């Protein structure tokens, strides 16, 4: 890391401003990377950065090797201990950032600073590997400003300016470079397949899981990131119909519900009465399941439909995915239950005795009237003193007993789980379905924004003659959850940043995010090939792109050169005033000939316009005096001459 | 390595006259324009390009468009900095160049006056291995001082100067050659020791005797005046102390320095001796005249006279 210098070459002192700016750039990089570095590493690096800045202010000089080497070893060991290795996206970022901060410890020459700036730019980019939202991209791009300002501060012989002023030229440079950057962005050929391993799924994101246990959604329900955006072919379905299914869960082991992947089984039959077509833009989930509105009719390309009409993609969704499909909104799903109805009645032995007893008592009371049993259960939730909360009390071993008879508080997971257990106890085939419910209808963009916090769990019961029927027990407790959305249901239990007005604003603002996600983030090799479709070129290959890039760059280079070569002529107000006078006279066809002096010309004009002879002679005298009487005419007299020219009107004379 | 580079450079100059056109001496003022400004990426610029390529490949590989956009932005800004570097030199004018005085073997001071219609910073002027950074204001000309080493007396043509800048980001180096058609006059180096000019000894003694005898006037006491010069009696009648001021000796020695008197020496030795005598005469504030082959300078004293004599001495063939 230490720079070797040629002997005899004098080292130029490092300007303090440049060091300050470099520290600022590093701090900026730390800030944008902090969210995906372990907190102790961020904190330690911030402390090292701050103390180095303070130390160099007091006594300029490198830190001794005895401090640097142990720090470097410690950093490497800490990263290996935390991540398991040094390679890969997250450990690589952590290591790169650590090295940047350690580089600052020995930064004393111009060369060190330049290396540091290069490092800072690189680590800025790695922040985008974790989050490529529009705001974070903008913030990261702003991080280039202190980096470029650092490079400028290295140049000698500059007028002294304030710290804030030193950012403006860097900002202006970036702004001027933006058109060329956009052109290059659009035309740089994308890779059809990665050169080396795609980024690993080393980051566990919140998302729908194939297991569900009461209380597991909490993290998801407080995650405000968009999960998907949906556009409908016709009008959107009403809010209480916006159920997006992901998993159908049959197994219950007393603690959690889980999805059994029944492979190689044909989807259950579906009788469609009413259907709707729509397109979903799914943001990366790193899972294979694709949410669908209600019951999908067919799986989209690249995905298969499993037995219970759960759509599963062939690969995990690591990049944003867009798929179109049709779904039934009024239907009969699996009108005849298959040969093994026990699947939908399965309950773990020796769990929740009171709940089972309650379900069996309902069956005894209502006989074979399944509908009455369902109503009974919903009435229990509605009138039994149940409360909707995102922070319910923890449940014990007999979770459903505790919930139904003791705590009586919870959210969709608790209600759907308890309801399904009750139904099964009463002998009605029942299951839990997870997915999303609700969303925000963006009128401006005509799309439905579904956030992670819209995750929901509900139940389905099988009723003879009607097939699987959706029952949402949460709606019995908190109807707003279904009609108004998750945020409304949660009431004032949410953080400040999810308050109504702010949430409204964020929902509207999402159209910009959507534009960014579709226009920028999802601009891949496929979209690039279709770039020139409006111009009749169906498939833009790499060569065409290269040629276009060359042409476009040359154009920008030409514009830049024109700017660079332009020399501003010093303005001469006197000559401009004479030009104005010439234009006025030219309208009377008294045009100044090439090579004609002002005296000759103006006398000719005076002869041609006898009505204004006096005025023109006066103007001529004035002009000659201003031009030749002194080296530098007085500004007041020039001003007076200009005013005279302005007031000069050519009166038409009838000959 | 250095030799090879120089050979390559000579060859390039021979092959490409366009490169060398502006390297011949030319008259001042010199205005820089696009035909005489060259730009190459600096070492840092090349390194940064490699970094940009790594970032580009990384962004393409991870199919990360935000990172690609950032890389493109940084690359475009770096490329645009080339134009800024060019513009920093374009239109700059070297108006005139003034040389100081120096004796052979010492460095002579050159003052270059640069003029610009807009403010520019981070300009650097190289003379051999020495680099001077300066900035030009739009209002008045910038005076850049350089030190040119000299070896022998006489007219010395100015070497080629390199004006360069790596503004704004240090990634590109724009430079231009300035080769003013101008020479500087280097004074001869005086000999270290030698005999005094004839008829000088008497003068000196006479001067010693004369000094301090005549009381010229009384003046106010200034810090540092010797105590024995204080005029105590007159001071008693005044508020302040008065000091006796002694007139300088009126009759200064007249030195006649003559080339013809120095027999048995070669030309350079004569010049060196005359230079020493000139220095001594100037130091003692004598008045002196100088006779050289082809030049005769009448008696006189003062700095201008001294410069005239030294110039004449330096300009001898």
What does this structure look like?
The complex is a heterodimer of chains A (655) and B (317). Chain A is of the alpha+beta class and 655 residues long. Helix content of chain A is 47%, strand content 14%. Chain A contains 23 helices and 19 strands. In chain A, helix 1 (16-33) packs antiparallel against helix 4 (89-105) and helix 7 (144-153) packs across helix 8. Chain A is elongated. Chain A starts with 15 loop residues before the first helix and ends in an 8-residue tail after the last helix. By secondary structure, chain B is of the alpha+beta class. Helices cover 33% and strands 29% of the residues of chain B. In chain B, strands 2-10-9-5-6 form a five-stranded antiparallel sheet. Chain B has a four-stranded antiparallel sheet with strand order 1-3-4-7, with no helix packed on it. In chain B, helix 7 packs antiparallel against helix 8 (303-314). Chain B is elongated, with a radius of gyration of 31 Å. The model of chain B is unreliable at 200-212 (pLDDT under 50). The interface between A and B is large, with 59 and 55 residues.
Main β-sheet of chain B: number of strands, strand sense, barrel status? 5 strands, antiparallel
Distance between the termini of chain A: 91 Å
SS-based class of chain A: alpha+beta
Radius of gyration of chain B: 31 Å
Give the strand line-up of the largest sheet of chain B: 2-10-9-5-6
DSSP summary: helix tally of chain B: 8
